[in-house]
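Shipment paperwork, digital attachment
Item: protein structure file
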Amino acid sequence: MPTPAPQSGGAPQPHGAGPPSATRQPHGLPLRRGDSGDAVRDLQRRLALIGYRTDGEPQEFGTETEASLRRFQSDRGLVVDGICGPQSWTALVEADHRLGDRLLYYRDPMMRGDDVAELQRRLGQLGFDPHWVDGILGPRTHRAVQQFQQNAGLPDDGVVGRSTIDALDRLTSRTTRRLTIAEVREHERLRLQPNRVEGKRIVVGDTGELPVIAQATARRLRQVGADVLSFSTPDLSHQARTSNQWNGDIYLGVTLAGDNFGVAYFAMSGFESVGGRALAQRCSAALAPWLAEPTPATPMRLSILRETRMPAVWCRIGPGPAVVPRAPHIASALADAITDWCVDPGLQ
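Attachment content:
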């Protein structure tokens, strides 16, 4: 994987980008109220850097730190539980980067951050195709940057420095286009797809708590002619990679939750998966008769949603005592929702 040499005319040094070790997850995750130590101090520092003050005792995870973390999780489209697990920590690290803070370029490991997502969104609005707005600077984003640079009369080295950002600023300030090319492409692909479930490549995943529901849903979809990949692992990024490598058409994930129930689809400021939203609405309506707690369709930025490059939903259902006895009905409802969506995606 190529690693271009940063040029001297690039962006200024970032306020939050330190050595690679600065982005590694600290020992002791998850962090929660009552914890203390250096990892908590780092959590508080990162929250404060992006505008979420923690006025409690330094290195003590108290009520103030929990309240700030919950506000961050809510604003970020994460599960709002006041616990800093791997997803919240990764989101904190990525939120520290703003477009222009650092040079962006294609490397191994690939760069991640809010600045990359903003770059992808702007490129997509101008008609240059990074394929998805996932905040990961991969080969397709690299090519989109090069194509933009060529179009703007800049050296097409794929390095996003000051000159490239200035050109983006000038051109995006003139455009009234709101949809990215990824959103338009997804809408058109769904509009033109065969209106049937037969032959669809559907991924059904779970994190280990509800394998009975996941397996029963997969079995019912196979019975109506779908090609189904089903697996169970708590590593959601692994699930996303596997789904992408398999070239799935749809991803459905289920997990048992204690609160924050809902059917999530990928959306962030300036971008959403239109297919994911429509599928989440179908699943939410289908689950309603069988669950004690409502599961609304909810825009979120969980890794399984943003890294899975297909219409994807993540179902957080519960509580357990109400879910387990109704597992066959829940599986049937989810399979029916997917089947109905394949026949009619219900695009606006």
